[in-house]
Amino acid sequence: TYHAGVAHLITFRSARFDIATETPNPINPIAGESLLRWLGEQLRESRFAVTTPQPEDWGWFIGVEADGASYLVGASGEADDAAPGHVGWTIQIHKHRSLKQKLMGANKLAPDDRLSALVERLVRQDAGALDVEVDRKA
Hints:
Layout: E1 8-14, H1 33-45, E2 49-50, E3 54-56, E4 59-66, E5 69-79, E6 87-95, H2 99-104, H3 114-126, E7 130-135
Antiparallel strand pairs: 1-6, 1-7, 2-4, 3-4, 4-5, 5-6
């Protein structure tokens, strides 16, 4: 799983997203497209610019433009053998920062980041999520 740099992580279980209908990830057989398609639609309704899900070796990702900042939102899912039909999901939220911003300690992903809070709210309210955990450590 991709955790380089500072990220907010949201983990949960859900039976809402059907990984069997996803486009196969050509890099690594990891699910994530179905969750990101749903999340992208929700974010567009909140006036965010969102790219189409793309495969990565750790799952899938979308680019999101919010409040003048660029984000990478990734998702990876694994079938939950203990709960048939459920998938264990991890959503990662990364904020793009320039080298200068990194050196100056500027434009960090804050614990109260608006996009991160919205993603958490959508997961808790609309994703049929169980066992939601959020890690916002900087």
